[in-house]
């Protein structure tokens, strides 16, 4: 699957200010069935590594701090 070029162009965006991955949270990475989310070594926050998404939503729903936003394409709504 294609590597995500920039975090702002992928469908799943993580608010670094809210993400507590640096405190040990890996919930979104763990629940994603496509395994496209990762914790960044640079920022210690979660991000979308691969630009691939089923829009199944558990990453957004299960994030304990509401840091994840899944932007569902208009055609899929
Ligand atoms: S579930 Fe939320 S707080 Fe936890 S790593 Fe993912 S984005 Fe960060
Ligand atoms: S919506 Fe589903 S496939 Fe997309 S990143 Fe979240 S858990 Fe993974």
From TrEMBL:
It comes from the Bacteria. Gene3D superfamilies: 3.30.70.20. Keywords: Oxidoreductase, Plasmid. Pfam families: Fer4_7. The keyword Oxidoreductase applies. One of its GO terms (molecular function) is adenylyl-sulfate reductase activity. SUPFAM superfamilies: 4Fe-4S ferredoxins (SSF54862). Its EC number is 1.8.99.2. PROSITE patterns: 4FE4S_FER_1, 4FE4S_FER_2. The keyword Oxidoreductase applies. This is Adenylylsulfate reductase beta-subunit. It comes from Sinorhizobium americanum.
